[in-house]
Amino acid sequence: MGNLLAETSNHKWGMVIDQDLCTGCQACVTACAMENNISFVGEVDAGYGRSMHWIRIERFWDGEFPDVKATTFQPVLCQQCGHAPCEPVCPVYASVHSQAEQTNLQVYNRCVGTRYCANNCPYQVRAFNWRDFPRPEPLSNQLHPDVTVRRRGVMEKCTFCLQRILKAEDAANAESRQLTDGEVVTACSQVCPTGAIIFGRLDDPESLVSHLVRDGRAVQLLEELGTLPSVTYLKGGSSYGRNG
Amino acid sequence: MVATAKPLEHTLLEEHEDPRQHLMLDPKPRGEMNAMVMDSMHTTSWKFWVVAILLGLVVLLCLFGAWGYLIAEGLGVAGVNRPSYWGIFLVNTVFWIGISHAGTFVSALLRVFKAEFRRPFTRAAELMTTFGLIQAGLSIFMHMGRVWLSYWLMPYPNERSLWPNFHSPLSWDFLAINTYLLASTMYLFLPLIPDLAMARDRSKGWRKVFYRLLALGFRGTEGEWTHLRTAMNIFAFAIIPVMFSVHTIVSWDFAAATRPGWSSTIFGPYFVVGALQSGIAAVAMVLVVIRATMKNMKYFLRPEHFDAMGKLMLIVSMTWSYFFFNDYMVQWYGGDKFTQMLLEFHEKGPMGWMWFAMLICNVAVPFLTLWNKKIRRTPGLLFTIGLIINIGMWFERYIIIPISLTINRMPFTWKLYKPGIEILLSIGTLSFFILIYMIASRLIPLVPVWEVQEGQMAHGLRKVGKAVVKTVSDLE
Known about the structure:
The complex is a heterodimer.
Chain A: H1 2-6, E1 13-18, H2 27-35, H3 43-50, E2 55-58, E3 61-62, E4 69-70, E5 74-77, H4 86-89, E6 95-98, E7 103-106, H5 116-120, E8 127-128, H6 137-140, E9 155-156, H7 162-174, H8 187-191, E10 197-201, H9 208-213, E11 218-219, E12 231-234
Parallel strand pairs in A: 1-12
Antiparallel strand pairs in A: 1-10, 2-5, 3-4, 6-7, 8-9, 11-12
Chain B: E1 5-12, H1 30-42, H2 46-73, H3 88-112, H4 122-143, H5 169-189, H6 193-200, H7 205-215, H8 222-255, H9 267-293, H10 297-300, H11 303-334, H12 337-348, H13 352-369, H14 373-377, H15 379-406, H16 422-441, H17 449-458, E2 459-464, E3 467-473
Antiparallel strand pairs in B: 1-3, 2-3
């Protein structure tokens, strides 16, 4: 159980999503696409279940129209499992565990596109490059230089904005200091207008995420599968009465 | 060689039965049988060429053309989506590996158990193994996102010190299928050597060169036969566990995953039986076609052989039903929320018709027809039943892969799979299989003459009192 032991290593990044604060505005989805050079698949492919977002807002409702009772919004992204089902099934080690950041990495250059990882992901958060989606002129100018552009036939997924983590760590190392809480924010967390997405180090007991993880409302997605996710949800519908 | 006569079960001839209706009791001289087999290889009507050219065009267009387009465009032209990341390509892979199982089953298992009816068609079944595996391999490669890098699945020394991940069921699969392909090709080749030598001695021109190269200088001396028999015996025993392991490992691709409906401990034997179900039916179909289209085959393939195949199909169909029920029962009783939804989706979802069609094709049709001797002995009917069983088994794999993938633990992502270019490629692989089989039927002696002759020499009739008893001498 190497993965369990690794839980205690130095930098464990984690995220808390407060479902009471989430308004379902999709700003995180947009920001993520900008930050991580995610392709726009177009209307037809998106309608057929091929949209490539690394984070999606799940929206559920109870009952039939017009007596609809909306439940809370649920942003779902890669849960960066400590014991990830996607990792052992890849035949070429394209889906691997990062010992340094305690996240799941996808090595685009190594991926041969068997899509086993996506089948085995209980959260269905992996995105496959079904085609080489076009990036016409003005769009091609907004590519993030720190992030690989993926080609067709390759699996991809949320990295917890690894490029931002590395940049901040480098800066801190250069100044010979520790990272401070809140120094690294992911793109989704940065743009969230209500502050529903909080990112930070779970190994630092004083960080904001560590405090929130101990909250009474804290739950994890499909906890029963034993995947040890790094994302914690503060379940909604009780505190602020958004659905009331 | 000491020949000891012993009565077989049910060997008493009925009053008015003609013993010559049995191939083993209707011997012909070796030279005549050789000539018949050579003749069947050399005779091609214009229909053969028309069908071959048409199939060639279909293969060119639907297999190579469509595959090239798929590689150039990416998997977007296929029907796979989230959550059905695997579609018809893997359905075809499992289906063709299933077809390939019959060859080994019919040939190796029946050889080991000395089932005499196998003798005239072991070769025809073994050819299906090798050719079916080729289609399975092609389908896997079609399924890959970056097929041009598929050699990364192989463990080869490289400057980056990267190895494939041996934890992945796909890696096991890759090794298992390769092992099976190599072993089954060798197993096809060994019993073929005497027949190749026979053909070499009876042909001219390029055929002579072809057979001389393949026959490896076999002359039929005592020593050569001893070695050949030893090798065939080793392979016949060794390939049986390989056959069982291959489809078990294929089933682990699914059973080892954390998905409702897939994590089942019974998938291994269930898949093996499913493979035999479609494979034996396919062998029966091929035998019917060979008998109807090739010269002199009515002597070698007789109603008794279809009768035996029909019985096998019925037994395997019963076994398949048992495993299906066992799997379904435990999944249903388990009461897992998502499994429950999946089972309901199978029956009441938009593809529910396929679930019921599967049960009709795999259970109802064989159960209701194959118990009847007349039906079993009628080639046309047996062909139809074989076709129905194969359609049913293809449906079964379709239900296990894309339809079961539709239901997962995140209901937000549920989406039905609609096939795209996969349909063309499926037609392409089927045509490719038929085409190479057709070509092989004119290049390779489809009936193992030596094996038939061996059987005919061992069989005889004896009188016990007033009854005539069929006997077979135990050669080994």
